[in-house]
UniProtKB/TrEMBL annotation:
This is FMN-dependent alpha-hydroxy acid dehydrogenase. GO terms for molecular function: oxidoreductase activity. The keyword Hydrolase does not apply. It comes from Lactobacillus hamsteri DSM 5661 = JCM 6256. It comes from the Bacteria. Keywords: Flavoprotein, FMN, Oxidoreductase. Residues 1-34 are annotated as: Disordered. The keyword Heme does not apply. InterPro entries: Aldolase_TIM, FMN-dep_DH, FMN_HAD. Residues 48-336 form the FMN hydroxy acid dehydrogenase domain. It holds the Pfam family FMN_dh.
Length: 336
């Protein structure tokens, strides 16, 4: 097993030693440039995520408190926890040991732990192999410039049992100021009308992933989306607002709409997840919080980390008198 190091600024833990590391100076074990690595500088939104999270303190409400029930309903289905496994991608390509399939291992862990799994950019063939593990899955499709490709992937996901589909609308821009290109495939802009077209093309709930303003949340709702992920996709936008900072305003703006609100962004522990849930999220996505464990120890590593995070979440719920995932109360939080 390789050692982890904790990034003091971003809170992310990363692999210290990996035989397959492509760039010795980078914490990311995959090919260079594939995933933006946290710089620790002020324009790195992950820095602000961590600072914001760590400055939220929690008061105690123990009298009459009982051990909480973590069961969470998402899109009409019951899961064991509000922690879900984030839309990761490309991981089957990053290890030297090609007999291992981290994307399948992550899906197997989700199934075993009875949590929702998200799958990001993969070919339809790879996606089909991952969902064959049997986890309940949300399929997130890139904002491809070729809109027919988006419609085809939505249909494919629907045919392969996805519980919901969506687009990571925050991945339109590349770092060169133009539309991004991923794996040689051009991405393009997404209008409210485009979103409406995708929503209407499927019977599945549609998710706009990468909402970081009340404005976009309302546009996603008007377009017919059933859910949003409040997120900046591990810091795609320079100086991005911490998702937790804008979450309460979004939650207020969407009251009465029945929209499901997910949030992600540097949630590395069950304590971080508690804060996100108390601030108005229905469920949270955990990405980099399980990434080193996944790459190190596969399915078991993810299960153990998730178990630990569930325990931390449960601990804070018990300390604050939150009996179930419907009963979070933001008034226990104090901003330092
Ligand atoms: C290796 C890796 C691959 C990712 N691929 C995708 C993707 O294909 N689609 C997507 O919507 N998000 C993708 N993400 C973003 C995550 O879903 C998530 O929004 C982001 O990492 C923030 O959560 P975190 O701080 O818990 O990691 C990826 C993240 C990582 C680390």
């Amino acid at each position: 097993m390789s050692e982890h190091k904790e990034d003091a600024v971003t809170g992310a833990s990363f692999m210290k030693e990996l035989k397959q590391e492509k760039d010795p100076s980078s914490p990311w074990p995959g090919p260079k440039g594939m995933i933006p690595v946290t710089s620790g500088k002020a324009d790195d939104a992950n820095v602000h995520n961590r600072a914001y999270l760590d400055n939220i303190l929690v008061e105690m409400r123990v009298i009459d408190a009982v051990k909480p029930d973590l069961t969470t309903e998402i899109f009409g289905k019951k899961y064991a926890s509000p922690l879900t496994l984030a839309a990761l991608s490309h991981l089957n390509k990053v290890l030297d040991d090609k007999s291992r399939k981290p994307m399948q291992e992550k899906a197997a862990a989700a199934k075993k732990m009875r949590v929702l799994n998200w799958i990001g950019m993969e070919t339809d063939e790879e996606y089909a192999e991952i969902v064959a593990e049997g986890a309940e899955t949300v399929r997130i499709i890139k904002p491809f410039a070729d809109h027919q490709k988006i419609l085809d992937e939505i249909k494919f996901a629907e045919d392969h049992g996805a519980v919901a589909v969506g687009i990571d609308i925050d991945h339109v821009a590349g770092t060169n100021g133009d539309y991004d290109v991923v794996d040689g495939i051009p991405l393009g802009p997404i209008t409210e009308e485009d979103l409406r077209r995708y929503v209407n093309s499927t019977k599945l709930p549609f998710v706009a992933k990468g909402v970081l303003s009340v404005r976009d949340a309302l546009k996603a709702w008007k377009a017919g989306c059933k859910a949003i992920v409040v997120s900046h996709h591990h810091g795609r936008i320079p100086f991005g607002l911490p998702p937790l900072k804008v979450l309460p305003d979004i939650e207020k703006a969407l009251q009465g709409t029945n929209m499901t609100i997910f949030v992600d962004g540097s949630l590395m522990s069950g304590y971080d997840a508690y804060k996100a849930l108390a601030l108005g999220a229905d469920a949270v996505l955990i990405g980099r919080g399980i990434l080193p464990e996944l790459l190190d120890d596969g399915e078991k590593g993810v299960e153990d980390k998730l178990q630990k995070m569930n325990e931390e979440l449960s601990q804070l719920m018990l300390y604050t008198g939150v009996k179930d995932t419907e009963s979070f109360d933001p008034s226990v939080l104090h901003f330092n």
